[in-house]
Amino acid sequence: MFHKSQYKGGDMKPKYLTKLGQVPQLSQEDIKALAPVSEQFIFRTNEYYQSLIDWDDPNDPIRKIVVPDVSELNEWGRLDASDEESYTVGHGIEHKYDSTALLLVNEVCAAYCRFCFRKRLFMDDNDEVTKDITEGLAYIREHPEISNVLLTGGDPLIMSTSKLEPIIQQVREIDHVRIIRIGTKIPAFNPMRIYNDDSLRAMFEKYSLPEKRIYVMAHFNHPRELTQEAVRGLDFLMKSGAVVINQTPMIAGVNDDPQVLSELMNRLSYIGVPPYYVFHCRPTLGNRPYTLPIEKAYEIFELARMRGSGLAKRARFVMSHSTGKIEIIGLSARNIYFKYQRAAENRNSSRFMVYKRNPEAFWFDDYNELVDDYILEDERAMRQEPAFDFEYA
Length: 393
Ligand code: SF4
Fold this sequence. Notes:
Layout: E1 16-17, H1 28-40, E2 45-46, H2 47-50, H3 61-66, E3 88-90, E4 93-97, E5 100-104, H4 134-142, E6 148-152, H5 161-172, E7 179-183, H6 186-189, H7 192-195, H8 198-207, E8 214-218, H9 228-239, E9 243-250, H10 258-271, E10 275-280, H11 294-306, E11 316-321, E12 324-331, E13 335-343, E14 352-356, E15 370-374, H12 379-382
Parallel strand pairs: 5-6, 6-7, 7-8, 8-9, 9-10, 10-11
Antiparallel strand pairs: 1-2, 3-4, 4-5, 11-12, 12-13, 13-14, 14-15
The structure holds iron/sulfur cluster.
């Protein structure tokens, strides 16, 4: 059942590798060819995660997640493909959907995914992230419609618990914030950081309350990441009171195979971690080798879902477009069917759209022929008000 990691460090902290030359399996030729890629898009991994790679397989999916690819240098995509910066409402805070605000609390991850949609944050001239959340907290306090706060970056769990806890504590003190989310790939990249930290357990026990939970938004891309260590880390989080769910982009060469994706979704469901979103890979600069056409990706997603139980197939396949999360619902011989799952403008919240198919499309913007659309008329939504008034205790 478990994938065994070859990691010999046991419970120890894995050593981080920040230079291609520290990866013994790469030849001098590889290093020379990949150096310009790692100069443009930061490289970082760690010994534990490296131990999951099968170096005899040049197409190994785990390798693809963290080892640069020369095709990243192809001119394709934009650095901020979902225009996140345009939803920035203060230093380190984004607010796109009524109920949810994002606090960008750091710009470091335990390894860097080559296909990251936030790779701009890791560049020297970017200052969207701040460790000082004063401005963000003030904004959240002034916006009672914000019931969910997502701590993200970067990876909040790379921070020591002593640095993370005061952030959680201050967000928890805001009455109208019910759910605190932590977006993290630490359970995949470095699960030892989780289960060796009793203060982390205490933090979840203290702040993930019966009516105000902390959700850990985990990020497993491939079933081979679900090692014994990773499962232990997930179990630790759940036993500490966190609700854990998973979201993953569909990445070419990693999980763009119905068998692989269904194994990932099924195993997550066995562990008790519902698959939440499968994202279509964003057209971020450097992401050409990792993406695939939308219609192809949708077919893979649907074939994967067909191989799963109801609990394994709860994920939705969505695009994080600048106008909102657009779910790809289905295909017919001529058309493709979309629906907004979340919309930046309330009036789009129920919008259903039918477009003529385009097998070459990599993003929503590549669909030009609208066949039909429908919006449920809701007066409140039209007035840009939240759908429900909720009196928080
Ligand atoms: S863990 Fe998330 S933020 Fe970090 S590199 Fe991967 S996708 Fe980007």
